[in-house]
Amino acid sequence: MLTVCNRAVLPIAILAILMVAVMTGCEEEVGNGELSQGVTEDEILVGSVGPQSGPFAFMGSPYYAGMESYFKTINEEGGVDGREINLKVQDDEFEPDNAISGMETLIYEEEVFAIVGQLGTPGILATMDMVREEGIPSVYFGGGASEFREAGENFFPVQPIYDYEGKLMAEYAIDEFDADELVVIYANDDVGQDGLQGIKTGLEEMGREDALDADREISFNPGDTDFSSQIQLARDQDPDMVLLYALSDDAANILGDFEDASYEVPIMTTYSNTDDSFLEMAAPQAPQVMTELYSLGWLEMDEQALQPLNDAMEEYYPDEPINAYTMAGWVAAETFVAGLEEAGDDLTWDGYIDAMNQLHFTEGLAPEISYEPGVREGVTHMSVSEVVEENGEYRFEQVTDFREFGE
User: Could you list the residue ranges that cross the membrane (predicted)?
Assistant: First the structure.
């Protein structure tokens, strides 16, 4: 077997030529075909960058356990066409500079075939130009920034894009909750601004701009600890529903201030908060407010759909929680593998990208994943869940079917 990826000591002129091959996705001769870097007769090496330590490890730990549990399950069944999938993860601690160095390690030193499930919007945005220029396939983002839609032909987002979710959130509020007047409380960052813009676009396309005016767009700065002024502004508007576009601790603290103000109104929040770990943060602060909390979701969470994940986690990672992050990691892995199966023997970067452009995948936890050249929207089918309390325990329960905006 002759490979151009071997970095043994060579004359400088030859080494320079080979470095060009490495930078463009080196190919090796295996059997009767050409394979891109990271692929051998018995292995497909993939990489990811995301937080495994630091304050955001609570996301990364179950996320990568879910991803690994899927790959281990596939490998136990013989892999994909006899090739096992092995994952290398670089810990970026949710820091963009660390994400850049981690991505360089994966592409140029580890020489992975693809990036799978990069986690964290700051790191994804920091490395996007590098990944685009190299042309290496990148499947699934652990984030929903609008820039992901325009990242490039070698990128395949799966999670819903935040501004699209905002459109659907507005539609659900109007159609399912008969809300005539809305208030939006949003983080003054890329996530919150994308969500707000989506809500406004959705209302405009529905002909319901009257449901939200500028006085009802209430912002806060991420990291704030006192939201009493935002709560009072919302109360003064007397809305039929509040749309809360905030993540994690911020969203939980805002709900706590709703509770402190004894202000109960239906609230709908982003899919990023549709998770048991969020309920564990929020419910102690806002036990009454939680009973009027709704959220969007994009995963099939019924018992039958989750059984393969539950079985795999019990076998490989019994000490890790099974939550929305675990499910997201599982979906990242199964989407990548669906692309491998579509590509068949053509495991070059171009071959894999062409296969993903033909993908129409409906067998996983997400209701539908499909792409075509130039279209990178992510999942567009979403449902609404409500928070249900039983014997002091809170859980999300799906209350609508999955649908797209405008259906």
Answer: none
